[in-house]
């Protein structure tokens, strides 16, 4: 957060909205990506619509701030093949995004609901979208291609990757510090960005470009997550189908009942699991151990794709705050050699503001060094 002083002088112009499966974040940002106001609301589809949350919160909040807006910008998890850059919303774009809901139902659906609500509340306000998949558009063919029959691949079944907005933010943050060092090495920066929260993914980044990542066609692939399974043998799914489970039951099990929650039988929250494990809870201990095993495997794979590692950056709720995980990784990563292990606070919204404002009006896309308040 910055010291506002005279808000107009900072060009307060972007409202950023980040809709998730159970939360809605809103923030006002300057052209440089400095956060001037931010709030978050919880919501559950079972207890009311996201439109009801917005209606009872956002108009009053923004009216009290009394700042003019240049545009609104949204985080969209899945952009498919079409969307690889900040994109102004239009009727054709909204129709195309509707077709992608099934690929990320927990996130794309709520994001579209927010877009439509905002178009009714502020019909003259231009809206833009930034996509979590866009940063991974640089994945080489060998990293994005599944070993499937050609006819299946032609249906668009490929690895897209996710959390790209935060992976890009992490890459920018580390790259600035890397290049500002007294004697940066002559080779391009080799970075593993670890987004560890309710959703978890790794990204191997060479010289600012995504070259490998753990999530795939949907945000289900890869690491163990809060309630998502991560990668499992496809034969498990075939066996469950043979036993009579419906696709809807499979989706609920994989998306909402697996991961840390399914392993522990207790909670999807790593903080609660740490506390329970300390008192001897077997399920919590198993969940933490499987999470760790999955993470170490993923880091090893990303390191192999990079041909070595210079920096491993932890971000997201678990990555930024779990002291036990940080200590464990420091003790476990010695085999990689001289690797720097750092934490980078997530800032998807700041990146979204910079990218969309730059695309809309030629504003600077580079981050500004915001002065923190006391």
Domains, number:
2
Across the major sheet, the strand order is 3-2-1-4-6-5
CATH homologous superfamily of the largest domain, by name? ATPase, nucleotide binding domain
Radius of gyration: 21 Å
Uncertain spans: 1-10
- The chain-level mean pLDDT equals 90
> How many β strands by DSSP?
11
Helix fraction bin: 25-40%
Q: Write the H/E string, N to C.
A: EEEHHEEHHEHHHEEEHHHHHEHHEH
Which class of secondary structure composition applies to the elements? alpha/beta
Please describe what this structure looks like.
By secondary structure, the protein is an alpha/beta fold. The protein folds into two domains: 7-131 and 351-361, Nucleotidyltransferase, domain 5, CATH 3.30.420; 181-343, ATPase, nucleotide binding domain (Nucleotidyltransferase, domain 5), CATH 3.30.420. The protein has helices at residues 50-55, 58-65, 91-98, 108-121, 141-144, 150-153, 164-179, 234-242, 247-256, 259-264, 270-278, 282-306, 316-321, 323-332, 348-361; strands spanning 12-19, 23-30, 35-42, 71-76, 87-88, 127-131, 190-196, 200-206, 209-213, 311-315, 340-343. The strands form two sheets. Strands 3-2-1-4-6-5 form a six-stranded mixed sheet. The protein has a five-stranded mixed sheet with strand order 9-8-7-10-11, sandwiched between helices. A hairpin with a 4-residue loop joins strand 2 and strand 3 (35-42). Helix 11 (270-278) crosses helix 12. The longest helix has 25 residues, at 282-306. The radius of gyration is 21 Å and the shape is globular.
């Amino acid at each position: 957060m910055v010291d506002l002083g005279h808000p107009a002088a900072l060009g307060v112009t972007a409202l950023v909205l980040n809709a998730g499966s159970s939360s809605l974040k809103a923030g006002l940002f300057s052209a440089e990506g400095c956060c001037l106001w931010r709030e978050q609301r919880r919501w559950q589809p079972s207890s009311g619509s996201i439109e009801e949350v917005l209606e009872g919160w956002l108009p009053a909040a923004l009216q009290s701030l009394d700042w003019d807006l240049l545009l609104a910008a949204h985080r969209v998890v899945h952009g498919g093949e079409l969307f690889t850059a900040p994109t102004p919303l239009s009727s054709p774009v909204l129709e195309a995004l509707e077709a992608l809901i099934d690929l990320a139902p927990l996130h794309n659906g709520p994001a579209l609901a927010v877009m439509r609500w905002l178009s009714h509340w502020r019909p003259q306000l231009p809206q833009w979208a930034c996509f979590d998949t866009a940063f991974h558009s640089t994945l080489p063919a060998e990293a994005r291609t599944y070993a499937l029959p050609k006819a299946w691949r032609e249906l668009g079944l490929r690895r897209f990757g996710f959390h790209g907005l935060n992976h890009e933010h992490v890459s920018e943050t580390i790259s600035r510090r890397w290049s500002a060092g007294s004697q940066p090495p002559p080779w391009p920066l080799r970075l593993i960005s670890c987004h560890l929260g309710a959703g978890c993914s790794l990204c191997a980044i060479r010289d600012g470009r995504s070259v490998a990542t753990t999530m795939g066609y949907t945000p289900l692939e890869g690491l163990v997550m809060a309630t998502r399974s991560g990668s499992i043998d496809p034969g498990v799914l075939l066996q469950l189908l043979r036993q009579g489970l419906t696709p809807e039951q499979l989706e609920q099990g994989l998306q909402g009942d697996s991961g840390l929650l399914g392993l522990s039988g207790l909670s999807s929250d790593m903080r609660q699991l740490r506390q329970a494990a300390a008192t001897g809870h077997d399920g919590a201990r198993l969940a933490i151990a499987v999470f760790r095993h999955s993470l170490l495997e993923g880091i090893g794979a990303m390191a192999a794709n990079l041909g070595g590692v210079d920096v491993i950056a932890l971000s997201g709720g678990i990555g930024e705050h779990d002291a036990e995980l940080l200590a464990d990784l420091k003790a476990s990563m010695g085999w990689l050699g001289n690797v720097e292990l750092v934490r980078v606070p997530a800032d998807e919204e700041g990146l979204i503001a910079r990218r969309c404002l730059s695309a809309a009006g030629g504003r600077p896309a580079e981050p500004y060094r915001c002065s923190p308040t006391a």
